[in-house]
Amino acid sequence: MSELSDHAENSLKGKEELHAVWKNFVIAALGYLKNQGEHGSEIPETEQEEIVFDRPNMFRRTQVRKLEYNLFISLHHEGLTEIEEYKSLAKTMAADPIIAEHTKGEVTTIVGGIYRSIWDYATYPLIKQLSKREGKFVFSEKLFTDDFLDLTRFFSSRTIRYLYVAPLIGFDSDADELTLEHGLKIRRMKMEENQRLMNDLRDTGFMPVEEVRFDKFCIELQLDVMKHFESWDPTAAELEAPSNIVARLVGSLRLFKAGDVRYNVINVAAVSDVPHLIGANMLVGHYRGFVGNSYVLDQTELTEFLSLRKLLTESTIPKVALTRFELAYDRVQSEDRMIDYIISLEALFLRGEFSEMTHKLSLRVAKLLEATLDDRQRVYKEVKKLYGERSAIVHGGSTGPSHENLQRLEEIVRDSIKQLLHRLVNASHEELLTQLDLS
Question: Rounded mean pLDDT of 409-418?
Fold first, then answer.
């Protein structure tokens, strides 16, 4: 959670009374529910199929029985709200301006909106007590204190911390964790995360859920997102900001080196479950499985990779060049990928010229990437041939490039972007093209 605002800090001082009345309610409610149970009121139970991992990559489908404590408490709503301890707690909560702000209407973030009443917040520690492995109706002081502190932190903060987790397909590393910046990392996935994601996605029809078990690493992004208590209509930029951070990171991985790295889903969940905050699974585009060579980023490469990310943030390189390079990775047809790569090269090496385009582009690429005359002649011929192949595709004279030619074109575009990123630190794009023409 973020630091308390002055208003919140002053309002939440001296919470001893709130702690005492909340504790009294939970103790009284446990006694009431225990008595109801002894008189035949049972905790409702449901059964559903779930995917369970026995060990990494090995799972089974099984029927799991679950006790529905929320429903159990709801069935006794009338009785619980009539006990004096609840009335005292509800009055105390309603008198607190911060808690009242959270219960008078919807609390909205970029993830979504929730409405929680005094009842919902009041019974949260009660549900946690009932959910204990042992002694459902026995009050746990430590558990209550932990839950009370979580609740007061939630109320006092103007933000909610959310965790965005994007499992990476085809990614591997010799490190368990690669820290990229504050709140952003690539880390090894836990078996229970694969299990939870498979259960979340199994009925969506978006992808073969069995493939999730092979995901070894994920991108983890932690963000503190603002709460809004009035009617709020977020902009597209606000809504898309977290997913754009993930997309830019994957784009920089692809630019750093060759290899098939991709993602299909971003799981969004609050770091704290107080009070049953909304979460989601963001499905990304159309499903694409692992189709190429695995992508490996080792610890020794991290410094160089971070330098590339810094250059991308600060560079004046034409955005269309980066966009088209990135789009090519998600194209299904090889001819579409080739068109994207050529458009990227045109954005990098042409000023909008319409005469001698093939010659100028090929020559500038060759001069940028190579130092010797022989190597420049070789690259010049390669680019000229690839550019001609693209023209044939556009005009219907070709069915598509060979795998080898497409790989070579990708390599040329990647190397060109990386070279230009470094050179554009001390020169404008226009100046750099002039330098290439005069060299």
Answer: 97
